# Entry
Amino acid sequence: MITGLFETHLKVADLERSMHFYGEVLDLELAHRDETRPIAFYWLGTRGDAMLGLWLEPPKRIQRQHFAFRSTVQDVLRAPAWLRERGLTPRNFLNDGTDDPMVFAWMPALALYFTDPDGHSLELIAMLEEQPRPELGVVSREKWESLS
# Structure
């Protein structure tokens, strides 16, 4: 019955600012902007695969959320520099001041985080081909590679 996630929505305080962020900074393709109400939709990945909706709301009604963008291992590894080029601060899962992607060994997947203008936590994540090793928890990429 369920084969994936098609659409998710975020409440944003400034629709124009968020449209600039998701469209210009993150290079997402605008799918539709509804001029009759304050909302814009962006395609995630290939057109028709998944969508992100941005809904204008008063700042006091915005609750910070988290979601992850599917990516490739190569792109997650390139992401720290790519994000910094766009004026964004990449961070790892531990938020310890470093920006080297970390591995969630139970999946396993490589992940890196950053924040949008409203403080929503965004993640780039890529599944790894190795077998899951949940006993390792969350580890650095270097540790994962040394144990694989």
Notes: The two ends are 35 Å apart (CA to CA).
